[in-house]
Each structure stands twice: as structure tokens, then as C-alpha cells.
């Protein structure tokens, strides 16, 4: 336990994970890209991306991410279009080299001869169980943006087309074409993907809005779905989705009772750190879910930054770096990343409030609705203006 | 041989798998964040790749998915393939429920396991085990979000008795007054009965509100600082006026009894704001000041903000 931010230890923690993840991460295999995103966006927040990821490594990571792309099969581009996007890992036997047909150049060595009309297709047929998930597509695009890739080899249309099939009649999304639960998490990832691709054609926005509205519960916060318990994670997803859609202030007008009560619910989740639900214990990941929600609502100054930062700093691992869910426990990729994000939000809000050096952790500021540093987000946001 | 013993025999040593040629994972020359799998897991996946390639849907393939899922229950692809196999082979539904039930017991917060369970219930139109299975999980962890989600789904999908559910929730709440998930489930039942059935309704009927306020208060009496019944009570008035004589009388009485209870004071402030009269707002300012300075100092910044807003409301009233 330490009360100063051990940035060098965290850098080492991230670098070790980039080299190899220990076997308990076996269960993370299907969502492997999320771990890569946590590590790289973590380095970005810690302001060490340029220093730690050189051009060679950056290229290797991009190739690795692109190798996870499920593209339409060049001979039957309309077949299994619903599966397109990014998978978590190549564990069902897909070749690493997926032979993206590019006219200009082929960055991988053994591409089959390309044909000019067949950009962004794959050389082998899609099998039914080779499915992308919204979460992995979202993480893949985020990683590529962090590494300043222009998404030139992403088949954007195939992703938005697949997304159309994943939206449910109630407006929510399922995470993959193979089925599964549909909830606010996937509605958010669908919005985030649309935002990253600058193409909202995969979303029926009115339907999505209906789902968001109907998931606002009696506690004045959001559940994963209608009449489900108010939860910090789903509340973040709903607010961030509205924010990406540019509808946050319209849905929650300033000074309206519902906005005021939502802010109160969020603020009251502060115990020392934040908890995610009424009468639950604090957990470092909510320093992002709750903290980012307050930030988007312009209300972070209403919480006690001292207590949040002490809770996070107390959960740092003194020897190996990384940050755990609660103090005196073992760190993991997700809680480390969420904690870096939480500290960045504290730093940014206290800088604008003139709190000086006390909360200066030397972190990059965060775009809370998309989950990237402003530095990274601005590289593509500015292009669009 | 029991299942456990069989599981210890590597697939490469099993005679009935001798015809299958395993396929290695291809992560390219420079894998990033590679996971240091155990060798036996790696081998299972090698065989899984071969099965996918030949599109084999058989009982031995089912057994292989079983074995991989034990190591990696979050693997949605393997679960998907398992369902594809079940669609074409003969299998015992009870055995499959036992299997997914055992998985659910050992890993009760796994999305894929709950999803597979829901698929079984829906596909084979059999909810006979559900409420009891979920109740068992909720006995182990009363706040398991997945379990409550599944419960709500079963109740609505099969239109099960909401009266029985109210009794179940009551039992859960008697065990743990602070279980906010159970309070949410009570609201779910009330909303199903009075809101969802009447799409035009924007708020609960007054008599239902009164009855539910009494219910919440019966818990508040035991532990006034328990946030859940307060949150429930406040939620009952969603879409309708808080400015209710009986409620105000009750709250003022509780304010005198439960000295230092932030929840009763917070609710009174909301009512005084709705009344929007100089004397109400003056009282709200007084209460807010004590929350800020004494009673709820953790949320001091928040009460400070509320105080400034109350003061400016009061000032503008006085100037009229």
C-alpha cells in the first residue's frame, strides 16, 4: 500500500503483460483484444505510449489486430455478413495471414494475388462459428486509433451491416451473431463503434433511445435493461451512449429533476471510493464508471477527490505494480486500467478547479464517453470537423 | 471410468481420438499479450480446431466442448458450437441441465453459462427448474445481477405468478434488509402489476403507493440508515407529487426520532423544494446546512452545491 502514484511500477506491469499474460488469463481468451486495449490505452493515459511502443512494435500490434478481422469472403461477399467485425482471438484455426486484398500494398508477406475490385475481403470462406463480437470490434478499433492507424484496412461497411442484425426489437443489442444476452453494454459498444467509424447506419437511433429511456429505473439511474437494478456500469453505458449520440443534454436537460436526481445517485455511490450499486462495497473500477458518468454530466466537483484517490492509490500493488479491485488484493488488467482512468478524471477535474499539484499524477486527460485519451481522440475528431 | 478420471487422459492419448489430427493456433510471428496457457488446455484447443475444420457434431465433440468450457467458461464460441451439436445429436435434457447447473454453481457470475441455461429453457420450453435453481444461487449471493436478470426473464417470459414472487422477495428482504437487488425486485413486481399492464400509466396508483410506503417504513424502523428502503420509497413517487400531507407528517416524525439520518433529511429537502415557499425553503436551507457540516460530511461538496441552489431559489422568491 502506498499513497503516491507508482507510475514506473505500473509501466513495468503493463510491459510484462504485453510480453505474456499468466495462465489465469486463460478465461480472457475470447475477449483477448480487450486486454490489449487496457494495456495500450493504459500506456496512453500514463503518457508513455511513444516511449514504450516504437514503430516496429506498433506495426506488429496493428498486424496482430488486423489478423482478427472477419471479412466477407471474396467469392461470396454476401455470405455470413452478420459475422463480420473482429474476433477476440484466432483460436478456431484461422490463419494469421487473412490475406486482405489491397491494391496499393500488402503488408503481410504471403498474400494471394489481389484483384482491384476485391478490397477488404478474406481469402477463405467464413464458417458459422467464426463470429465477431461488438466488444472485440470496439476494442480493435480503439487499439488501431491509439496506434494512429487510419482504419484503412477495416471493412467499415461490413461492420455496420452486421450491427444492423444485432439490434433487437426493444432497441438493445446482442453481443454476437451467435446469440447471447442483450443489454446496455452492447448498446454502448454499438454506439462507440459507430462513433469510431463515423458511420451510424448500423443503429436505429430512435429504437436505441427507447431502450435507454426504459432502462432508467426508480432509483434515477440505469440498469442493464428495463426494471433491472440501477448499476454504475450500465449507468455509464447509457450516459456515454447518449453523449456519443450528442443527446445527453436533450435527454437530461440541465436543472431538470431527472438530471439532478441522477447526479445525486452517482454522488451517493461514494463511500470512500465508489460502489456500483446501493448498499454495495466500493471497488476501484467504479472510479471510472461512476467518475466518468459524473464527468460527462459536469458534476465531478461534487465528490470528494481526496477519498477516491486514496482508495485507488491504496489498491496499488507495492511490488509488481498494477491496481486491484480493493486494497490488499491481486491486481488485474481491467482494474488497473479503470483506476488509471479514474485518477486521470480526478486530475483533470481538479486542474480545472484550480487544485494545483496535489492531484497531478502526470496523466493524459481522458475523453470519458469514448474511453480514449483526448490526445488520441483528437487525432480523428479534429479530422471530422 | 468417472468423468473426472477421463478428463485427466489427454486427448492425444485417447484411442477414440486417434483419427483426429490436431491443429495449432496461428498467432503470427509477433503475438501481443500472449496468454501462457497450460499445455493440456492448448492441446484441447488444438483438437477443437480440428473438429471445427471437419465440422464434426458428435457426442465426442460434445465431450470436448465440455472439457474446454471447464477451463474457459467464458468462451462464447465453444458454447455456440456446443449448442450446434445439441441441435443435431440425441441428448438427455436433464443431463444438460445438470451440467449447466453445476457450472452455474461453481461460476455463478458467468454470462455464457446463464445464457446457455436461458437457451435450454427457451428452446425446450421447460422452466420447471428455474425458480428453484435461481433461488439457490441467490441464497449464496443475494445480489447476483445475473440471477436476478434470469429471474425477471423467466417470470415475464412464462407469465408466472407475481404474488408468489412478492412472497419470495419478502423472504429475501427479511434475510437481508440491505439487499438492494431484492428491493429492486419488489419494484419490478409492483411495476409489472400496475405500470407495465397499463401503458398509459405514468405513476403508481395512490393506494399502492401508500401500501408500499408502509412496507418500506416497516424496514426503516429497524435500520433508519439503510439506504435501500429510502431509495425505494422515493422511487414510488416517480412521476407524481411528493407534496403529500401524510408523507410529510410521517417524515417530520421520523426526523425527530432518527437523529442524524441523512436519508429522511434528503427526502424532506426534495419535498420543500417542490413546495417552493419561503418557509419551506428556509427549512430546507437549515437541513442542508446540517447535512453538509455534520451529518453527511463525505458528501460535503454535494450538499454545498444543493445549499447554494436552495439559497438562490429562496432569494428569488423573496424578491418577487
Automatic annotation (TrEMBL), chain A:
<protein>
    <recommendedName>
        <fullName>Prenyltransferase alpha-alpha toroid domain-containing protein</fullName>
    </recommendedName>
</protein>
<dbReference type="GO" id="GO:0005953">
    <property type="term" value="C:CAAX-protein geranylgeranyltransferase complex"/>
</dbReference>
<keyword id="KW-0479">Metal-binding</keyword>
<dbReference type="InterPro" id="IPR045089">
    <property type="entry name" value="PGGT1B-like"/>
</dbReference>
<dbReference type="Pfam" id="PF00432">
    <property type="entry name" value="Prenyltrans"/>
</dbReference>
<dbReference type="InterPro" id="IPR001330">
    <property type="entry name" value="Prenyltrans"/>
</dbReference>
<comment type="similarity">
    <text>Belongs to the protein prenyltransferase subunit beta family.</text>
</comment>
<keyword id="KW-0862">Zinc</keyword>
<dbReference type="InterPro" id="IPR008930">
    <property type="entry name" value="Terpenoid_cyclase/PrenylTrfase"/>
</dbReference>
<dbReference type="GO" id="GO:0046872">
    <property type="term" value="F:metal ion binding"/>
</dbReference>
<keyword id="KW-0637">Prenyltransferase</keyword>
<keyword id="KW-0677">Repeat</keyword>
<feature type="domain" description="Prenyltransferase alpha-alpha toroid">
    <location>
        <begin position="5"/>
        <end position="350"/>
    </location>
</feature>
<keyword id="KW-0808">Transferase</keyword>
<dbReference type="GO" id="GO:0004662">
    <property type="term" value="F:CAAX-protein geranylgeranyltransferase activity"/>
</dbReference>
UniProtKB/TrEMBL annotation, chain B:
<keyword id="KW-0808">Transferase</keyword>
<keyword id="KW-0637">Prenyltransferase</keyword>
<protein>
    <recommendedName>
        <fullName>Protein farnesyltransferase/geranylgeranyltransferase type-1 subunit alpha</fullName>
        <ecNumber>2.5.1.58</ecNumber>
        <ecNumber>2.5.1.59</ecNumber>
    </recommendedName>
</protein>
<dbReference type="GO" id="GO:0004662">
    <property type="term" value="F:CAAX-protein geranylgeranyltransferase activity"/>
</dbReference>
<keyword id="KW-0460">Magnesium</keyword>
<dbReference type="Pfam" id="PF01239">
    <property type="entry name" value="PPTA"/>
</dbReference>
<comment type="similarity">
    <text>Belongs to the protein prenyltransferase subunit alpha family.</text>
</comment>
<dbReference type="GO" id="GO:0004660">
    <property type="term" value="F:protein farnesyltransferase activity"/>
</dbReference>
<dbReference type="GO" id="GO:0005965">
    <property type="term" value="C:protein farnesyltransferase complex"/>
</dbReference>
<dbReference type="InterPro" id="IPR002088">
    <property type="entry name" value="Prenyl_trans_a"/>
</dbReference>
<dbReference type="GO" id="GO:0005953">
    <property type="term" value="C:CAAX-protein geranylgeranyltransferase complex"/>
</dbReference>
<keyword id="KW-0677">Repeat</keyword>
Amino acid at each position: 500500500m502506498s499513497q503516491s502514484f507508482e507510475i514506473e511500477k505500473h509501466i513495468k506491469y503493463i510491459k510484462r503483460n504485453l510480453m505474456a499474460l499468466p495462465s489465469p488469463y486463460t478465461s480472457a481468451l475470447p475477449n483477448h483484444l480487450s486486454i490489449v486495449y487496457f494495456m495500450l490505452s493504459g500506456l496512453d493515459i500514463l503518457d508513455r505510449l511513444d516511449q514504450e511502443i516504437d514503430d516496429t512494435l506498433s506495426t506488429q500490434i496493428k498486424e496482430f489486430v488486423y489478423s482478427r478481422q472477419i471479412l466477407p469472403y471474396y467469392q461470396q461477399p454476401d455470405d455470413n455478413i452478420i459475422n463480420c467485425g473482429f474476433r477476440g482471438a484466432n483460436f478456431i484455426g484461422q490463419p494469421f495471414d487473412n490475406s486482405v486484398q489491397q491494391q496499393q500494398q500488402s503488408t503481410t508477406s504471403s498474400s494471394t494475388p489481389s484483384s482491384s475490385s476485391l478490397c477488404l475481403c478474406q481469402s477463405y470462406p467464413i464458417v458459422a462459428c467464426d463470429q465477431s463480437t461488438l466488444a472485440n470490434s470496439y476494442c480493435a478499433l480503439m487499439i488501431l486509433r491509439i496506434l494512429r492507424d487510419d482504419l484503412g484496412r477495416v471493412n467499415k461497411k461490413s461492420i455496420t451491416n452486421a450491427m444492423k442484425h444485432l439490434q433487437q426489437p426493444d432497441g438493445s443489442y446482442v453481443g454476437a451473431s451467435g446469440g447471447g444476452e442483450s443489454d446496455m453494454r452492447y448498446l454502448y459498444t454499438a454506439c462507440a463503434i459507430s462513433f469510431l467509424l463515423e458511420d451510424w447506419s448500423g443503429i436505429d437511433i430512435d429504437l436505441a433511445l427507447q431502450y435507454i429511456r426504459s432502462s432508467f429505473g426508480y432509483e434515477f439511474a440505469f440498469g442493464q435493461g428495463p426494471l433491472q437494478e440501477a448499476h454504475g456500469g450500465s449507468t455509464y453505458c447509457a450516459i456515454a451512449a447518449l453523449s456519443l449520440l450528442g443527446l445527453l443534454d436533450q435527454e437530461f436537460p440541465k436543472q431538470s429533476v431527472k438530471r439532478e436526481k441522477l447526479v445525486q445517485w452517482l454522488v451517493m455511490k461514494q463511500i470512500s471510493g465508489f460502489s456500483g450499486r446501493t448498499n454495495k462495497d466500493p471497488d476501484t473500477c467504479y472510479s471510472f464508471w461512476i467518475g466518468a458518468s459524473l464527468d460527462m454530466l459536469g458534476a465531478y466537483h461534487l465528490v470528494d477527490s481526496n477519498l477516491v484517490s486514496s482508495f485507488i492509490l491504496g489498491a496499488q500493488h507495492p511490488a509488481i505494480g498494477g491496481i486491484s479491485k480493493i486494497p490488499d488484493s491481486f491486481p488485474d488488467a481491467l482494474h488497473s486500467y479503470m483506476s488509471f482512468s479514474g485518477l486521470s478524471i480526478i486530475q483533470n477535474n481538479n486542474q480545472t478547479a484550480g487544485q494545483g499539484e496535489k492531484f497531478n499524477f502526470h496523466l493524459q486527460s481522458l475523453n470519458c464517453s469514448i474511453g480514449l485519451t483526448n490526445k488520441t481522440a483528437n487525432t480523428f475528431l479534429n479530422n471530422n470537423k | 471410468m468417472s468423468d473426472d478420471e477421463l478428463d485427466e487422459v489427454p486427448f492425444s492419448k485417447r484411442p477414440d481420438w486417434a483419427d483426429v489430427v490436431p491443429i495449432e493456433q496461428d498467432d503470427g510471428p509477433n503475438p501481443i499479450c500472449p496468454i501462457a496457457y497450460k499445455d493440456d488446455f492448448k492441446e484441447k484447443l488444438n483438437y477443437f480446431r480440428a473438429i471445427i475444420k471437419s465440422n464434426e457434431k458428435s457426442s465426442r465433440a460434445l465431450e470436448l466442448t465440455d472439457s474446454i468450457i471447464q477451463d474457459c467458461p467464458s468462451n462464447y464460441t465453444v458454447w455456440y458450437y456446443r449448442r450446434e451439436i445439441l441441435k443435431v445429436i440425441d441428448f438427455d435434457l436433464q443431463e444438460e441441465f445438470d451440467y449447466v447447473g453445476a457450472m452455474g454453481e461453481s461460476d455463478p457470475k458467468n454470462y455464457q453459462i446463464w445464457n446457455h441455461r436461458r437457451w435450454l429453457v427457451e428452446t425446450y420450453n421447460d422452466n420447471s427448474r428455474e425458480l428453484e435453481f435461481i433461488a439457490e444461487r441467490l441464497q449464496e449471493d443475494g445480489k447476483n445481477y445475473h440471477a436476478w436478470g434470469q429471474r425477471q426473464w423467466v417470470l415475464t417470459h412464462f407469465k408466472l405468478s407475481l404474488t408468489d414472487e412478492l412472497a419470495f422477495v419478502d423472504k429475501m428482504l427479511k434475510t437481508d434488509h440491505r439487499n438492494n437487488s431484492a428491493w429492486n425486485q419488489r419494484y419490478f413486481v409492483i411495476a409489472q402489476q400496475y405500470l407495465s399492464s397499463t401503458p398509459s400509466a405514468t405513476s403508481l396508483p395512490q393506494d399502492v403507493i401508500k401500501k408500499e410506503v408502509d412496507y418500506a417504513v416497516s424496514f426503516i424502523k429497524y435500520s433508519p440508515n439503510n439506504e435501500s428502503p429510502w431509495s425505494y420509497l422515493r422511487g414510488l413517487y416517480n412521476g407524481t407529487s411528493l407534496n403529500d400531507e401524510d408523507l410529510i407528517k410521517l417524515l417530520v416524525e421520523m426526523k425527530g426520532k432518527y437523529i442524524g439520518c441523512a436519508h429522511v433529511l434528503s427526502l424532506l429537502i426534495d419535498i420543500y423544494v417542490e413546495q417552493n415557499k419561503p418557509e419551506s425553503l428556509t427549512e430546507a436551507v437549515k437541513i442542508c446546512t446540517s447535512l453538509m457540516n455534520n451529518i453527511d460530511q463525505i458528501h460535503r461538496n454535494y450538499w454545498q452545491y444543493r445549499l447554494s441552489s436552495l439559497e438562490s431559489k429562496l432569494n428569488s422568491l423573496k424578491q418577487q
